[in-house]
Amino acid sequence: MTFLATIGAFFLAFFAQTGRLSVFVGQTLAAMLRPPIYFRIIGQQIIRIGYFSLPVVALTSFFTGGALAIQIYYGGNQFNSEAIVSSIVALGITRELGPVLGGLMVAGRVSAAIAAEIGTMRVTEQIDALTTLSTDPHKYLVAPRVIAATLCMPILALIADIIGIFGGFVVGTQSFGFNAAIYVQRTINFLTVDDVTSGLIKAAVFGFIIAMMGCYNGYYSKGGAQGVGRATTNAVVSASILILAANYLMTSLLFSS
Amino acid sequence: MTAKIALSDVHKSFGPKDVLRGVNLEVETGQSIVVIGGSGSGKSVMLKSILGLLTPDKGSIKIDGRETVGLARRGRADIDHQIGMLFQNGALFDSLPVWKNVAFRAIQNDGMDEAGARDLAVDALKQVELGPELLDLSPASLSGGMHKRVGLARAIASKPEIIFFDEPTTGLDPIMTDVINHLIRDCVQELGATTMTITHDMTSVRAIADKTALLYKGEIIWQGSTEALEASDDPFLNQFINGLAHGPIEVEGQQLDTTPNAEAV
Predict the structure, then answer these.
(1) Beta strands B194-199; B162-166: pairing state
(2) Whole-angstrom Cα distance, residue A44 to residue A47?
(3) What is the C-alpha separation between B67 and B65, in angstroms, rounded?
(4) Residue A16, SS3?
(5) Which residue of B has its CA nearest to A126?
(6) Under 8 Å CB-to-CB from B81, ≥6 apart: which residues?
(7) If we measure between CA atoms, which residue out of B31, B24, B69, B68 comes closest to residue B193?
(8) Does the beta carbon of B88 lie under 8 angstroms from any beta carbon of chain A?
(9) H or E segment at B42?
């Protein structure tokens, strides 16, 4: 009986959490569409989420592009590796690694920061103060962060694509002696617009997930400093898992048709 | 005459814990009521229910005769506009300087420009005896007493008809406690506002209350004027206002033995 009760309690908690998250997402979407829209706060969040994430995303994609080039070169040396390194690096970076690794890095940085900030506001009653000052916390706190992250992530992914491909180019031309002009030409010839846009669509969804998880976990944090710490951890873990799950779903949808 | 704030049979539970168990309370226009009670008696839950931050499970809360229970946030907008609130720790927004905190409602809801908002903040700070040199400071750089005073300035800046104070003197030294109590009294008299203060500080009660109510185990068990408070022989009230460890009030989940000479047994 205790075993069954434990299973029951687990599922009840799971469904309660799912329901609360769904309501939270619904309230946020409604807040995003209804005026007033806080353009100034959106601008500030674009700087914090987008601009300050650039170094992390750039370094990650550069080294990933380089490592990918090495793997493909040695893994495919029985084939014509010079021909395939450029194309597979370009394809791998734009379709998968740019948006996914960029998303995971931004999740670590931004979800945690959002959850800590909003969580601290929750436990110090600043969110209650917003409400009593006739300001909707979803509009003032959540919507600007979600809009900013959703707008910034495709731009970050595009930058990650360019720098990742450049990483592969540097390794290919400097370590393996590939001809630079031919490498660039093959990359351009092989890549299609769809490869890039599919990655950018994914990145926009990842941006939405990152901000939403940060805001949700921060908004419902309780129990002082420990609660804020727990919210921060949960935000990063849940955002990372959802990014990988959403990536699988979107890859299935975008490339199976 | 319709009461400014009227609570009738208000219940609120969290899981199996019944926090409010039928609160009945009326506050007249212009009256300063202080709700006292021990930790965990339900004071903050009652206050949050009136503010619409929590929804009661049962009962009625009327402000100016208008039912607020079940009212959507947007429906509350005109009620919220006439309310000011001083939170226990000030709840100032860390990301904004003092002047934006004080003039927050005017900036966000009335679209007031920067010059107007700064003037408004200067006036509100003056009312709590603070100078304009604080305007551009961050809340993090303020002392505890200043934090409370800036919070009070924010609460009164929009000249509300009703002001709530949640433990306004908690954590302050006796001198600052007296300063805050006088500021509350002066500001309220100047505005002619109706106020509700939640506290367990009897100095505050004597300084600011027209009427006092004792909340115990989620129910108002005594209410009356400040004169009646001092003259009352209610055992619960006497134990609370005199700060006695022994008496009918249970302390934090422990039932104290209230029989005479219990300590000697």
Answers:
(1) parallel
(2) 5
(3) 7
(4) helix
(5) B91
(6) A134, B109, B158, B160
(7) B31
(8) yes
(9) none
pLDDT per residue, tens digit, chain B (265 aa), is 678 899 999 999 988 888 899 889 999 888 889 998 888 888 889 999 999 888 999 999 999 888 988 887 677 878 888 899 999 888 999 989 999 999 999 998 888 888 999 999 999 998 888 888 989 999 999 988 888 889 989 998 888 899 999 988 887 788 878 888 887 887 778 888 899 999 888 888 888 888 999 888 888 888 888 888 877 778 778 887 777 777 777 766 544 343 334 333 3
Beta bridge partners, B83, equal B162
Mark yes or no for CB contact B87/A129 under 8 Å: yes
- Kind and range of the H or E element at B20? strand B17-27
Asked if B53's CB is within 8 angstroms of A126's CB, the reply is no
Omega within 30 of 0 (cis) for the link into B139: no
Record the tokens describing residue A221, joined without a space. Answer: 């944090």
> Phi first, then psi: what are they for A142, rounded to 5°?
-80, -55
Task: Enumerate the residues of chain B whose CB falls inside 8 A of the CB of residue A128.
Answer: 48, 51, 53, 87, 91
What is the Cα B171 distance to its own chain's centre?
Answer: 15
Query: What are A5's two structure tokens?
Result: 């009760």
**What's the burial of A246, exposed, middle or buried (CB within 10 Å: 0-12/13-18/19+)?**
middle
Rg of chain B on CA atoms, in Å: 19
Query: Are B53 and A140 a contacting pair at CB < 8 A?
Result: no
**b/e burial code for range A65-76 (CB count within 10 A of at least 16 → b):** bbebbeebbeee
